[in-house]
Amino acid sequence: MKKTVICGLVAALCASAALPATAADGAKISDGVVRIGVLTDMSGVYAQVGGKGSVIAAQMAVDEVGGKVLGMPVEIVSADHQNKVDIATATARQWIDTQKVDMITELLNSGVGIAVQKLASEKKRITINTGAGSTALTNKECTPYGIHYAYDVFALAKGVAAEVIKDGGKDWTFITADYAFGQSLEANARAQIEKNGGTVKGSVKHPLNTADFSSYLLQAQATGAHVIALANAGGDFTNAVKQAKEFGVVGGGRSLVGLLIFITDIKALGLDAAQGLKFTEGYYWDYDAQTRKFGEAFMKRAGSMPTMSQAGVYSAVKNYLKAVEKAGTDDADAVRAVLGEMTINDEVIRNGKLRADGRLVHDMYLAQVKEPKASKGAWDLEQILRVIPGEQAYQPLAESTCTLVKK
Amino acid sequence: MEFKQVLQQAMLGLYNGAFYAILSLGLAVIFGLLNIINFAHGALYMLGAFVALIGLTLLGGWLGSPDLAIGYWASLIVAPVVVGLLGVVIERTMLRRLYQFDHLYGLLLTFGIALVIQGLFTQFFNTSGEPYPGIPPVLQGATDLGFMIFPKYRLWVVSVSLAVCLGTWFMIERTQLGAYLRAGTEKPDVVRAFGINVPLMITLTYAFGVGLAALAGVLAVGTVQPSPVMGAEMIIKVFAIVVIGGMGSIIGSVATGFLLGMVEGVTKVIYPEAADVVIFVLMAIVLLLRPAGLFGKE
Amino acid sequence: MMDKRLWIGLALAGLIAPYLFYEVTLAKLVCFALFAVAFNLLIGYAGLLSFGHAAFFGSAAYVCGYVVRDLHLGPELGVVAGTLAAGLLGALFGSLAIRRQGIYFAMITLALAQIVYFIALKSPITGGEDGMQGVKAATALFGLVSIESNRARYYFALVVALLGFAVVYRAIHSPFGAVLKAIRENEPRALSLGYKVERVKLLAFVLSAALAGTAGSLKAIVLEAATLTDIRWTMSGEVVLMTLLGGMGTVTGPIVGAFTVAGVESWLANIGQAAEVSAWLRAITSAQVVMGLIFIFCVLLFRRGIVGELQHVMKRNLNL
């Protein structure tokens, strides 16, 4: 233990002696350790999407580089923000002020995500949000050090809308969770439908946490639309799908589309109820040899396949460390600049390019849930129909309302 | 708005009303004798659904014989019994110590119990719900009601709910046991003087009330994914229904449960935006006009 | 005499604290303490359990956030606006609920608060689940003192909270407070003595709601955000827990309780660090479960609360 500290110190001294000019604040790695904070929901409704799995994913990325970058140790700290903004910001502040955390990732809930991104940027720290869907993170609320990683609601809605219309699903109707998040999912999808020559025949709003969707499903069915899009998430989404099956809403040329689906939701529904569902996502473990490599390694440690959010944490930490290595420092400006120049290609992210507004643009996938008989294993759930190149998947930079984007 | 469509929505609402009725009935029974609002009711409703789920999918594995499983029909009995026993434990070890104090302590205690149960399940199960694969084939599919195609499962739930509610009402209002119960509510000392074991009666009443919640939980698995958070949102609505019906009124809670299910259903087509607040708005109106609730005695 | 020392002690502790602890966390605790003190006015002195106080706390936070962020007015105006809004909402709730007692009262306040929550969830002004972010006071306090630094914000919160404590303290030690206690002990008798019971209770309710609103407004300013957590029914439960744990009906109990509950929450947040611990250990240390266990423990064995229990012990020892 002592030895490593001494070695580290010596290495730091040598390195700083060799490259004194590039060091931003006199030291290349501030306080001799690169600390990464995984701030996530470990006890609430998003615990399966992120939670403990995200900490494991971050640890895997650190283990891969031998727990060291530029000769300095890399440490993971984690905390449960309980989906409370006050707990999250207090933890983030404490991490930055007293524990010298250099980067904060995961974040999940968008209220928490926006607040922490804002706070961290004021203190010149990078945040990489892999869990929240809100596009506000890279528009109105964008910051110089805030990065939005794995997906966002724009990409999810756009991908599936454009692709389903291409396959002939021209007229749509929505079942939308009646609050800001659901409305933003619907608005994003609507814009894409109209752009691609489809029509929206109707929309019905349901309250958050609805147990019974029958009424909404029948109303949607009555519009005669061929595509019923579910602009909701989690328990609302799974119950809507389950009851769509009960009422025989799907079939006869009518299909169901989900606008925000995690692999855990499909697991929650079971293939029997979920089969045929189309959606967009940012990562699926069984896409190719590389994605499988990470998925299976994660499975071994966490006991489940990673969600796109957990996989995003792995990739975020891995590439953050690469950028630190390349920049030769953990100074946020330098690392952010390197990240902006990199093209990210790894087990999770393909053709990833980080933009000025903080959006990581990368390939997305149009997926369809498999039929039960086509599934060969407990996690063989999806079939990837098509790859959607990043530039087509995400909101164009020109449309971003982020003030950091030069126009 | 066509009449037929309103009728359809009312029918769908009746299904939700079936749950409101069973849950508020359980609350009313407990409130009647114990004078406690059982805040844990939602968590125990959730627990009922999970007893059915675990019994079907996990129990066999835990016991080392994977073939062993408790099916849907058995769950209808097993879940209320298991949760009822838990109710006995809660009443005997905790609630009992609080009767001498302000009744509000009972509310706070059950609130704590609800947090613990829900918090534990959130750690082990998916909050998006878990699939329940055991609905018997005879309850699957749909039947033609003339004005709409209605899933058989929902008809089944409505009939069970009606039967349970009527049975409970009959037991309390028309039998000797019910007479003791009612007397125990009014004058526990006198009833005890007649040699009736009032503490036992209280324990069993609590167990029965939470057993009803568990039954509702099992009935729910046919249309809703069992999820650790399924009870939390439901319960506040049911509280409002109990207030509207008049607290402690058996017939009031049942009638209001079904009625409000239908009102809510119709609201979903007429003005969907208001569907989640209509119950609370009605509650405010009822309180202004009739503070004791629709069926309560002032 | 005792009282004077108490106040001086509180103020001194408040002054020194930021040199020992992190200001923003302290400021948050101060907000919760005021919230709990406001709540205690109802439960501790009027015997009314409101299960909907998050409605006042949260809606005031949104109102304050709107005034400060979107109308660009000073933080003092934000707090005043939040307080007034919560007071008005309190008058509305109160006029519906005050006629009932005990559990009925609790249920009605809970259901009314639910309506307010749904409005906050849907309204475009609140930002839904994104929350109202970036509530930064653009103008200085009264146009004079900037509260941009953490420490300035903390002292602002401390001063306002102390004012709030003083208001509650005055109220319970006034004839009004005496009537309240009389109603709590024996409502029919108070009625027969000619007190306008309903009006006194309503006044207490409005005062409690308004001060809960002050706390919520302060929280929005201190943490620069107002979110759905502030207005959800779980927040109503938390303030009950704070008051219960600290000691209902004691002057300092709610403050102690608020510090303890919020402290435990922050501590639990970091237990997550041990990612490889067993699932069961993680489960029983999850925030919800721990809060629930504290509730059960308090109700069963610790009804006087921390401060109440201390006072009880002290009294008994003095009598010996």
Automatic annotation (TrEMBL), chain A:
Domain spans labelled Leucine-binding protein: 34-370
Name of one Pfam family that matches: Peripla_BP_6
Gene3D superfamilies linked to this entry: 3.40.50.2300
Span of the signal peptide: 1-23
Keywords: Signal
Similarity comment: Belongs to the leucine-binding protein family.
The name this protein goes by in its record: Branched-chain amino acid transport system substrate-binding protein
Gene source species: Niveibacterium umoris
UniProtKB/TrEMBL annotation, chain B:
Localization terms from the record: Cell membrane
Entry's transmembrane regions: 17-37, 44-64, 70-90, 102-121, 153-172, 193-222, 234-262, 274-293
Xref: CDD domains: TM_PBP1_LivH_like
One of the GO biological process terms: amino acid transport
Topology within the bilayer: Multi-pass membrane protein
Keywords, alphabetical: Amino-acid transport, Cell membrane, Membrane, Transmembrane, Transmembrane helix, Transport
Cellular component GO terms held in the UniProt record: plasma membrane
GO molecular function, one term: transmembrane transporter activity
Coiled coil feature spans: none
Similarity field: Belongs to the binding-protein-dependent transport system permease family. LivHM subfamily.
Annotated protein name in UniProt: Branched-chain amino acid transport system permease protein
Organism lineage string: Bacteria, Pseudomonadati, Pseudomonadota, Betaproteobacteria, Rhodocyclales
